[in-house]
Amino acid sequence: xxxxxxxxxxxxxxxxxxxxxxxxxxxxxxxxxxxxxxxxxxxxxxxxxxxxxxxxxxxxxxxxxxxxxxxxxxxxxxxxxxxxxxxxxxxxxxxxxxxxxxxxxxxxxxxxxxxxxxxxxxxxxxxxxxxxxxxxxxxxxxxxxxxxxxxxxxxxxxxxxxxxxxxxxxxxxxxxxxxxxxxxxxxxxxxxxxxxxxxxxxxxxxxxxxxxxxxxxxxxxxxxxxxxxxxxxxxxxxxxxxxxxxxxxxxxxxxxxxxxxxxxxxxxxxxxxxxxxxxxxxxxxxxxxxxxxxxxxxxxxxxxxxxxxxxxxxxxxxxxxxxxxxxxxxxxxxxxxxxxxxxxxxxxxxxxxxxxxxxxxxxxxxxxxxxxxxxxxxxxxxxxxxxxxxxxxxxxxxxxxxxxxxxxxxxxxxxxxxxxxxxxxxxxxxxxxxxxxxxxxxxxxxxxxxxxxxxxxxxxxxxxxxxxxxxxxxxxxxxxxxxxxxxxxxxxxxxxxxxxxxxxxxxxxxxxxxxxxxxxxxxxxxxxxxxxxxxxxxxxxxxxxxxxxxxxxxxxxxxxxxxxxxxxxxxxxxxxxxxxxxxxxxxxxxxxxxxxxxxxxxxxxxxxxxxxxxxxxxxxxxxxxxxxxxxxxxxxxxxxxxxxxxxxxxxxxxxxxxx
Length: 659
Ligand code: ADP
Hints:
- The structure is a single chain.
- Helices cover 58% and strands 16% of the residues.
- The longest helix has 73 residues, at 390-462.
- It is an alpha+beta fold.
- It has 21 helices and 16 strands.
- The strands form 4 sheets. Strands 2-1-5-4-3 form a 5-stranded antiparallel beta sheet, with helices on both faces. A 5-stranded mixed beta sheet has the order 11-13-14-16-15, covered by helices on one side. It has a 4-stranded antiparallel beta sheet with strand order 7-6-9-8, covered by helices on one side.
- Among the domains are: 107-187, no CATH class; 421-500, Signal transduction histidine kinase, dimerisation/phosphotransfer (DHp) domain (Helix Hairpins, Orthogonal Bundle), CATH 1.10.287; 503-656, 2-Layer Sandwich (Heat Shock Protein 90).
- It has helices at residues 2-57, 63-68, 112-122, 124-132, 134-139, 145-161, 165-176, 179-182, 187-203, 207-223, 230-245, 252-277, 279-287, 326-343, 390-462, 469-500, 513-531, 549-565, 597-600, 613-616, 624-634; strands spanning 78-85, 88-91, 297-301, 304-313, 316-324, 349-353, 358-361, 369-375, 381-386, 509-512, 533-539, 544-547, 571-580, 583-590, 638-644, 648-656.
- It starts with a helix and ends with a strand.
- Adenosine-5'-diphosphate (ADP) is lined by residues 558, 562-563, 566, 590, 592-595, 603, 608-610, 615, 620-626, 649.
């Protein structure tokens, strides 16, 4: 007991040591795997960004090219991609025209004429008066250009109200065709005019003109020196594209072209917006030296993070600057790191960002920090690994020990059960072999006895010693009897081997079991009567079953012969064949020696014979019931046996009835 306790104590100590060692190894592995997973995912993002930038480089130029253009592939984790070729911005290309945003027209006070118009709109009579003089108003040389523009705007509004669309269009064109006048409109107003023009074309159902007009505005916009007020531009194009896409007679090809153009244009506007807001930061990033060996440079300023990568292409050096979408980038990488961490869930660690907020893992209350490294990510993160709690180590080693003992116990049980089953198998096999040997010896004995008699009588007759005719008759009668005994025995063996080799040799047919059983009965009745037994039979007509005649014959023969063999005189044997529901029933009931219940399940085994005196004195091979069982099985029949020693037995076989 003392030794056992000592060993167990030693074992626990060992386990503690092993667990600590195991933990140290796990910690190193975790750190390595986290770093690898992060690098792998980042490289994937770089690769995807590069692929997406190649698409931008080959951007479609004309409207219809847009229809067939491949879709731009968004990169998860990246908000915007900027492409430079030999130092000049290639995408987004509208941004190249960007200079400064100036408000040319801050004064929105109504002019005299406009005030007059405004008032006249309230007063219906005065309106006509003003309308009458509207041409004059538009050309009045005394008015300043600013006032002129406002007057024309007023006139346009009236024409639009009156649904005089062609007049409104004419006036709009006056404004639009005079770039000088347009200078007096701030960009907001320019887009309102564009929108009104477009709207009137749609109202007049001039769809083709509306499409053309939208593209002209787009062209003009792209050629403008100053890109101003992105929101109102975006509003105009969004409204126009949406309207065009809803035109019923728009061809599929064009619809796709407009759809892609809209996506691309919005993307360009978004990217341009970013560029305008971070112009200087972009310039710095573009021109600063790269320190890392991968050639990828990360830069962060306020809440904007950029990375720069370059790769050579046929048309010179490509530089890609991408703006990181921090949330998406973080989630994408954390997803991968989570997978790694799951595999090492027993190592305490944490990943935090610059604001010290926890991204992954957990920060233990009191544990000591063992290592702290910054992860080389676009986003500056810190990985901390902590010492493991002693109680936790103990618990883990206990867990490991429990697992080990459990495994040991399980193996032991398996070995015990395995040996038990093996032993049983060997015993059974041995029994079977013994039974077969026993069978062979009894069969050869059985075969030898009649053969010896036959040989003896035949020899006696051959030597001419038997002169009397009666003796010759008696001997040949004996020879005949022994020969039929031999025949029966060989028949049983053949029958058995036939059954053992399966149903291949069977000839299946529909037959009346009564006819079959009656044949058997007639063949053996004499033996029973001679022994002093009385028979009672019931052979109902039309008890049809599906089966092999020879097999069924030997089933009936074995059961009836057994009843005769194992019943002493005076005794009764009842044989019944009848239909019952969907079954064809065959019963053999005797008042013989019976079978003890402990033997009932054995007697159907091959070569098995009950070891009592009665059986020993009765000739048999132990194959009869084995044949019965096999025939019943192949015919999908059931056998039931009720028997009491000294009272008798009832063997009943139930077949499936055939109509
Ligand atoms: P056997 O050739 O010995 O008759 P069986 O396989 O036909 O072989 O029967 C197996 C054993 O079952 C017999 O040895 C006998 O002890 C017992 N048995 C079979 N039928 C009866 C019966 N009707 N009454 C009593 N015992 C029987």
